[in-house]
Amino acid sequence: MSTTLPLFWHLSSSSKKDRLDASVKLISSLEHFQAQFEASSPSEEDEGSDEKPDALETLNAQDVSYSVRRLTRGLASPRESSRLGFSVALTELLSRIDTVTCSQIFALIMDATKSQGSMTGQEERDVLFARLFGMTAIIQSGLIVRTKPLPTSQSSATLASSFEGYEQVLTELLVLGEKKSWLRESAWWAISLAADSLNAAEVRWKDEAVHATAQHLFVENRIWSPEKIALALKLQSAFEEFNWRPLFSPTFKNPDLLSNVNLQTLALILKDSNNDGGDADAPKTAAAGGWKTQLHYVWDIMLDRLLNTSNAVNSNFPEFFRIVVDESLFSSTASPERKYWGFQVFQKALHLVSEDNMPMLFTKNFMRTWINHLSKQDRYLHKAAKQTVAEIQTFVQRNPTLGFALILQLTGFHGSQQFDKITKTKMVESIISTMAADDIKQYIAYLLNQANDGEVEVEIINARRRWIIDQLSALIQNGSIAKTGEWVESVLDWFVVNGLYVVKKKSEKSRFIGLRQIPKPQFSDELRHACRDKLLSCLADLTNHITTIESDNAKVKIAGVAADGELWVTKVLSTIEELKQDTKHVSSIAEIDEEEEVLRAKVREVVAKLKKVSGNQQEAASGTQLLLVASLVQQSCSEEVVSLETIELCTNAATREFSLDKVKKKTKKGRPPASALVDEEDSDDDGPEPIDAIVDTIIGFMEKSTAYMRSIGNQVFSLISGQVKSSTIDLILTQLETRDPAAEDEEMDEDEDEDEDDEDEDKPTNGEDAEDGSQSSDDDEEDDENENSDNEEVDEELRQRILEALSVNGIKAANEDDEDSEEEEYMDDDQMMAIDEHLAEVFRSRVNEKKASKDLDAQREATHFKNRVLDLIDIFLKKQPSSPLIVRLIIPLVDLITRSTTDEKQLSDKARGITRSRIGKAREFASAEEKKVEGGGGKEEGEGEEQEVISIFEALHKRARTERSPDHLSILSDCCIYISEVMLHAGMQDQVVLQYRHSLIDFISRKNSSLNVSFFQQFFRRSRTAAWNLRNDLLEVSGKAANLYRQFQAYQLIHDLLTEPPFDIHHEVTQYLQALCKTLLDVIFRTCDGSDDSLGLNASQMREVLRLALVGARQARKVAVAAEDAAVQIPQPQNVVATIWDSAAWTRATDLLLASERFKGAAQMCKQVVQIASAPSNTSQSQSKGKDEKKVNPKGSKESNERLMKEEEKKGGKEEGGEVRGEKKRTSRKRKTPAAGADGIEGEKSAPSLEGQGKKVKRKKVE
């Protein structure tokens, strides 16, 4: 017992893993004990009796018998999860040993679970659950139908199971189910397990057990419940030869419980509603227990039987689901709890149903309930409805071929065409995105077939057509759907046919779907307008859509084209032209005059020539082609037409830009005639640049409010950006200038007035016609005035103001009800003059309010337009990052960022984002060669461009010196760095250094300077070579700093400069390090002897000075090593480091620091400088090594330098780490080594930063 007792404790653990581990160990141990146990032969007296009290001990080992009793008693334990652990162990133990009988275990369970009158409610529940778990253990272990006899004497054979034991278990489970309604489902589930075991067993008493089961369940118990239906279905399928009709009647008319005649009765029972038999037609059902969220297991049995693939042909599932689920659980009178069950049944059936039966799930009541609870979040079953949406989406992802069938149900008769809009989901859209191309074609055909139905009312068919137009547009605008050419083109053609033409005669063989049937009734003007709008919006999306095309065995990504490489806009224009020629079947809704027709022909001719352009201009020609074709489509489809003058101007510009009218006739020498060349030159000189005219057309597109024109404009500019010139940039920047929209509107009004005056002058002024005309016009004006006066609503605010003005002057308002006064009172001249000013003020304020509102709208529209122009600038910066014209965009962008008002914050933010991403993070810059090519190679022009860049650079620096906003200063810094890179590429290093020198002097020497140290640090990091030229200025200006803070910021810049000095110019570095050493020593001496009170350094600031000295000393040593490796003859003594960094002077500085009470702590850092400066040069040590290395590697100077640099970095890292530790530890750990490397010192320390040093000083004072 000592080995098994500890295992029982873990059977009650709340961890499932611990319980299973304990069960495995316990059963293994008990099996081992039972295998070693030898049963004693029973005596004759024992053989005569059925069972003895010690029969369990007779055939089992002591540990086994104890464990059986212990596990049986433990089923009633309320501790943690003991019931689960003990029942699993008991089930497994009973299945492993064959020395117990069903009656024995049943008796043990009944004895251990006797109820007493003094039990509390919780104790009674524990006892009932113990019996239930015990009976289930008998059934699941197989003991209830075990045929193997017990290992007793050979003369007698006691079977482990018997009919009596089976009936005992069955009866007790029925009693449990009747005692507590909340136990009924579990008890009958255990009975169904017993029925399954009986069906699979080969016991002699099988038929007797079946009859007994039927007797107990259906004869003695006439009350029906879901559990009884589940058991009846199981028994009926297991024992088909049994006569079930008399047992099921009269409740069920057909022995097949799932037949159509039984569905109404079945629905009442499954609804789990109480019926005590008062209704003669309704079956008597069991009392309903507490409602459970978990769906009853009977549904799994019924759905498995109805949707079984072998019985799918004869299945009546549609009728079952309609009656039992839709008209019962989803009925209008059903409770929310029953509807919740209905959602669960739907989710279960969705994954089991076949493709043919799947539409049958979306029944009327289900769809109504589902849509209602999806539409608002406060609905009771909103989460259940959302879970159903998730299940359907998962189902479609696994079965994409069923997507079309699902959409038909969601948008069909029981659903809603606006399903996504009503339910606030994107379910239809998500299903469509998973559909294949063939399914999408099928869906489009389904939509178009619904567009023509003359049997319904006009309002209904118009609403349906509006929905169809929206659905077709949504297909193209859905980014997750592959845009295959066939179905997209069919949708666009349908929009063209029904938006621009009237079908007169059908053509069944036409490639246009819209011509295969005459719409009945014809499309209304509103629907035609919707078709045109959706056509343009679809073209806008397709223009931005990227298509991968295979060209010359390579895949190329092109925007706005179909799979065959042709522009979508071109396809639409071809459809328009083709239908225009087909006058037999269609007629255009808009007439085209002769002038426009001539222009269209010219555009088509130019487009055909643009397709033949190749080489570097091919991309720009493609963009121009898109612009011309899109203009014609806009002309046909939108009310905001592009003027014919604009189209003609753009066409001529395209001809000039790409030399489409170039004379091909040549002389004998192969040259064109001189006259032709002269004419061509003259034509080029007339008017603006061709590319400017094209871009001006694009800007005109940006002014429009349609997404189509904006998308076309952006795409065209992206393609022609390589042809942009300086004048084009000026044209774009002109649009960003700040102008008064109100003044522009006034000018436009004046122009309109002048035009009206001109028209008035052209009217006839004599004769009867003129008189009649004037008379009729007067009559029309009077009628208009009367209509306006009748239709205008009274402005109460204006009326109150007028009444107030009248009352101030003693005049009362007229009262319609006052009929007593027969005479009217007239105002005299004085009264009229008195109220004149008041009325004038009222009307003046009214006019000012309208004007202010108009100005606000104009300002808002101007801001939106500038936003669109900024899109063009962003496109240019993205497509042409190395263009020299970018420099001209910087000042206008900075103006938008720094000088925009609060109303233009969106504009300012957009300009800031473009500047940071495109200019601040630029990696490509214009080179000198590109500037020469852009400028044409002229010397004067090149000098002018250089001067322009210099002036822009100078202006940016001047702004930075006075800019108070840190954010704006960061933008200016990015722009300065970008232009400095451009200037450095162009060889203008002196001008770059000059401007940074002026800014540096302003920053260090002027106290109110707006610059900060990061403005220069970014320049130092990006342009090391140019920044090196500021080294002497830094030293000089540090002595003239406005204050100590600026002085130490200058030291910080020197530190950044010395991080990576140019070692290839040894003389300059050496001289600068000597000057730095002298400057730092002067600061230390003046501070320690008190000769200069203006310094007044504290301990942390002195450490900062010494930190810079350490950096300089290390760089001096690196310079010496680099010079030696490069074999440079430096005219200095043999110890180069000591000469550059005067060790004697630093020794005196150390003594002064030690003598100062304030700087004593910093003396250790000064000693490190002395040690570095006085360390012996590595010249003598490296000469012999250098010779050996050169023998092996003749080019070993570089490798030697890298090796020494790495050693230095390692030592420098140790030194930096050493400085972090305390002053005492640093002094005690510093020691000299016999072989001291290039430094001559191990553990050399570097000073920390200013901030860290200040903290250390404070800690030291506290200590």
From TrEMBL:
Residues 662-691, 735-796, 1174-1263 are annotated as: Disordered. The keyword Protein biosynthesis does not apply. It is found in: Nucleus. This is DNA polymerase phi-domain-containing protein. InterPro entries: ARM-type_fold (IPR016024), DNA_pol_V/MYBBP1A (IPR007015). PANTHER family: MYB-BINDING PROTEIN 1A (PTHR13213:SF2), MYB-BINDING PROTEIN 1A FAMILY MEMBER (PTHR13213). The keyword Nucleus applies. Its main location: nucleus. Keywords: Nucleus. Residues 1223-1233 have a biased composition (Basic residues). Residues 1174-1184 have a biased composition (Polar residues). Residues 678-689, 743-796 have a biased composition (Acidic residues). Residues 1185-1222 have a biased composition (Basic and acidic residues). Belongs to the MYBBP1A family.
